[in-house]
Design brief:
It is found in: Plastid, Chloroplast. Its EC number is 5.3.99.6. Among the domains are: about 40 residues, no CATH class; about 160 residues, AOC barrel-like (Beta Barrel). It has 5 helices and 8 strands. Strands 1-2-3-4-5-6-7-8 form an 8-stranded antiparallel barrel. Helix 1 crosses helix 3. About 20% of the residues are buried.
């Protein structure tokens, strides 16, 4: 009979159920209610109202997560934040690297364009200036073989009776100023026989030698030396006041191989001292140095002339 009564009470209490899907604050949905077998009504069948209410009341005291689960959840949240933060930092670094690379590429492209423009741009509207002509200074000297130096020496390397290719002629002669008033120094060098020219009754040499001017320094020359004609040789350099010199020198054969007259056309050096620039004596086979110069007297020489 109690079961029937209870059954009747259940039917009467059914209309008091909460609307489907309605969940009160801090309450779980109806799907999380205790099963009917565990309802307090089965324990206390006499309390019909309590049973009816208890059978419908959600269990708010149940907690689905324990502290360990919450800690794990918070750890996951923190881990997720850490990953997000690391990703953001990495993204910033990549962005900065990309910006730097773009800036470097832009700067390099700009430099390339500037360099290209510098080398390939053409200036319009202004005529091109002619290069400045270097100042040319003339220097005249005499080379005289006084037969007191054992010069020249003939080395017959060709081992032929006639002058032939390969024969060598080392030499050293005295050097006087163009006005023949000063002993300047000496010449010294080497001539290599290139060709014997029978029809000219002479030879062609390749000459490499220097002119020494005491404390003033020296001038080096190289080029063709013909025993039967005048030639031009290149001025290849110098020392002392002649440092950085370039130009050419005209060689005039007066008496082979005893007297020669040279006219230097020098560039690239400061003005020459007046001591070297006296008015030259007209070249001829009969010219002779002044006695003071020939005797190397104090007023007939330059400072520390080369002997």
């Amino acid at each position: 009979m109690a079961l029937d009564t209870t059954s009747g009470m259940r039917e009467e209490a059914a209309p008091s159920k909460l609307p489907t899907g309605h969940v009160q604050r801090n309450e779980l949905p109806a799907s999380f209610l205790l099963p009917e077998a565990l309802s307090p009504l089965s324990i206390c069948p006499s309390s019909s109202t309590m049973a009816s209410t208890s059978s419908l009341q959600p269990i708010s005291s149940l907690k689905l997560s324990n502290p360990r689960s919450q800690s794990h959840f918070h750890s996951q949240q923190q881990l997720g934040f850490t990953h997000s933060q690391a990703f953001a930092i990495q993204h910033l670094k990549l962005s900065k690297a990309t910006r730097d690379q773009n800036r470097f590429s832009t700067e390099r492209r700009s430099r390339d364009l500037t360099t290209r423009a510098f080398f390939f741009s053409k200036k319009h509207g202004s005529p091109r200036e002619a290069p400045k002509q270097a100042k040319v200074q003339e220097l005249n000297v005499y080379e005289i073989n006084e037969r007191d130096r054992g010069s020249p020496a003939f080395l017959k390397l060709s081992q032929k009776t006639q002058n032939s290719l390969g024969d060598l002629v080392p030499f050293s002669n005295k050097l006087y100023s163009g006005d023949l008033q000063k002993r300047l120094g000496i010449t010294s060098g080497l001539c290599v026989l290139i060709q014997n020219v029978p029809e000219k009754k002479g030879d062609r040499y390749e000459a490499i030698y220097s002119f020494y001017f005491g404390d003033y320094g020296h001038i080096s020359v190289q080029g063709a030396y013909l025993t039967y004609d005048d030639t031009y040789l290149a001025v290849t350099g110098g020392s002392g006041i002649f440092e950085g010199v370039y130009g050419q020198v005209k060689l005039q054969q007066l008496v082979f191989p005893f007297k020669l007259f040279y006219t230097f056309y020098l560039k690239g050096i400061p003005d020459l001292p007046a001591e070297l620039l006296g008015q030259p004596v007209t070249p001829s086979a009969s010219v002779e140095p002044a006695p003071a110069a020939k005797a190397t007297e104090p007023h007939g020489i330059i400072p520390n002339f080369t002997n």
